[in-house]
Structures are given as C-alpha cells and as structure tokens.
Amino acid sequence: EPEVDRAPPGSAPQVVVKVKGGPERVLVYRKGRLLGLLVREKPGLWKGRVVLPRGLRGPQVLEAVAERPGTEPVRYPFLIDVDPRAPWGLIQSPFLVRPGWQGIPVRVHLYAPAQAVELEVGGRRYTLTGRGADWQGAFDVPKTARDRLALRVRARLFGGEEARLERVILVR
User: Fold this and answer.
1) Out of 20, 44, 121, 135, which could bridge 139 as a Cys pair, Cβ 3.0 to 4.6 Å?
2) What string of DSSP letters covers 8-47?
3) Are 171 and 98 in contact, with CB atoms under 8 Å apart?
4) Are 152 and 128 in contact (CB under 8 A)?
5) pTM of the model
6) In sequence order, what are the beta bridge partners of 126?
7) Residue 68: predicted pLDDT
8) Cα separation, 106 vs 148, whole angstroms
9) Residues 12/92, Cβ–Cβ less than 8 Å
10) CA distance 150 to 47
11) CA–CA separation, 109 and 112 (whole Å)
C-alpha cells in the first residue's frame, strides 16, 4: 500500500506490503517495468520507495510482486494518481499560534529523499535537520504576525531537483 494515493511525477513515495509465507524478495512494477525493490523490515513486512517516472500522468496501476522460490509470484496491484500539481510531501505544525511564540515544532515529510530542507516563516529562514524523507526543526512566530502565517519549505532532492511545499497556519 503506498503512503499516498496522489504524487507528482519524479517523486518516490514509500510503499508498504504485508506478505505471508516469507518471500525471497518483493519488487514493484508498472506494465512490466521495474520501479522499486522493497526491503524486508521484519517477517511479513516489506518497505521501500517507488520512483514514479517523470513522463507518467494520471491514475497508474502498479503491482507489488512477492517472489518465492519454487512457487508462482503473488501479485498485489495498487493505484497511484500521478499528478504534476500534487504536493511533494506534507508539513506538520500546530495549526494555531500566537504572535511572538518561539520554538514552534515543525516536521516535514517528503515523497522523495532530500539532501537539505529549509523552512521560511515571516521572511526568516530555518535549516531543518533530518535525512531522507523526514526532517524537523522549530520556528519563531514574528511578533508582528496577524491572522495567517505561511510556512514555506524548499527541499533540495537528490539529483538536484527542488521541491516546494506551503502550509498556512492561523495567528490569534
């Protein structure tokens, strides 16, 4: 099952497959083309990232294939809508803050691994810490903030591409 049902082309959402019977490996395909190899996390649980090719658009049927020696592969089809307008991830933070509050926690989860992630709030930039797809940090709410405040994230993905996210929170 994918972590998201809608993702942009070029992203690499995580896929989790629960499989009984101890397969030797689990691969993810689209129309016979290999998109990803899942890693065994624990018995019966496989995880990995599936790279969605840049040229894909629209609903795509992908298939996780669990291979066991001497038996027919077990196939698990699933759907991902590939949409250039889909977000590259999500920003988690409190939805309501007050002017002047400091150290507000923020987490960013991306649908592709990143080398560096930066958060901009009220004209001030914060470098987030983390690795891969999960990053965290904290920000301060400007004393002059009123009504709404935009949290803007810029992530430098592996391969040099930049992903952008935005979330608006309320200031009361």
Assistant:
1) 121
2) -TT---EEEEE-SS--SEEEEEETTEEEEEEEEEETTEEE
3) yes
4) no
5) 0.83
6) 119
7) 87
8) 16
9) no
10) 33
11) 9
